[in-house]
Structures are given as C-alpha cells and as structure tokens.
C-alpha cells in the first residue's frame, strides 16, 4: 500500500482547502461580497492562486498515484511534497504580486513533470 502517497494526497487536498483563507481575507479587506470576483487586485490574485491550484490537481494527483503504484511510493511522495512546496511558493509570491509567482510555478511544474514521466515509464515497463 502506498501509505506515503496517501499522506501526501491528504496534505495536497488540505493545502488546496486552505487557499480559501486568503480569498476570505481579501474579500473582507476589499469589501467585495460574493459572488463578485473582480474589482480588487488582491482578491483577483487570491482567486487565481486557488483556481490555478485546482487546475493542476487533475494533472498532479493521477501522476502522483501512478508513479507510486508503478515505480515507488517514497519517490512519488517526495516529489509530491516538492509539488506542494512549489504551490506554496507560488501562492506566497502571487499573493504579493503577480510577477512573483514564477519560482513557485517552476518548482511545482518540474515536480509534476517528473511525476508524470515516472508514471509513464512505470506503466510502459509494466506493459512490456
């Protein structure tokens, strides 16, 4: 059983859920009530951080699990932690200013690509 990957999956989902906190804070600071999503750059950045993370989840989670099942639970989990750290850096940078998101985006994208490549290699090796 890939226990480490299960733990990382739970941490990734928790991280995603916690991204609603900056949105709530930005709404309170700006006075913009739901469902309005525009009008304050801080709110718009917070919404984009959460939305972009959601956009990456269907790329990240299958690759994470396939890499764990077909290659290695500890390796997949370690790359999953790197992905979460990258998303954290992305969020911290983007919440400050849109042009500060690049480093975190690069870290998480490379971790996601590594997981996808491991998953692909593992599945192909299992088929041969």
Unreliable parts:
none
How far the N terminus sits from the C terminus, by CA atoms, comes to 23 Å
Helix amount: over 70%
Alpha-beta content class: mainly alpha
CATH class: Mainly Alpha
The ordered string of helix (H) and strand (E) elements is: HHHHH
Look up the CATH topology.
Four Helix Bundle (Hemerythrin (Met), subunit A)
Keywords for this structure?
128 residues; mainly alpha; Four Helix Bundle (Hemerythrin (Met), subunit A); 5 helices
How does this model look, in words?
Helices cover 84% and strands 0% of the residues. With 128 residues, the protein is mostly helical. The protein has one domain (3-127): Membrane associated eicosanoid/glutathione metabolism-like domain (Four Helix Bundle (Hemerythrin (Met), subunit A), Up-down Bundle). It starts with a helix and ends with a helix. The mean pLDDT is 97.
How would you summarize what this structure contains?
By secondary structure, the chain is mainly alpha-helical. The chain contains five helices and no strands.
Which SSEs are present, and which pair or pack?
Elements: H1 3-18, H2 20-30, H3 41-70, H4 73-96, H5 102-127
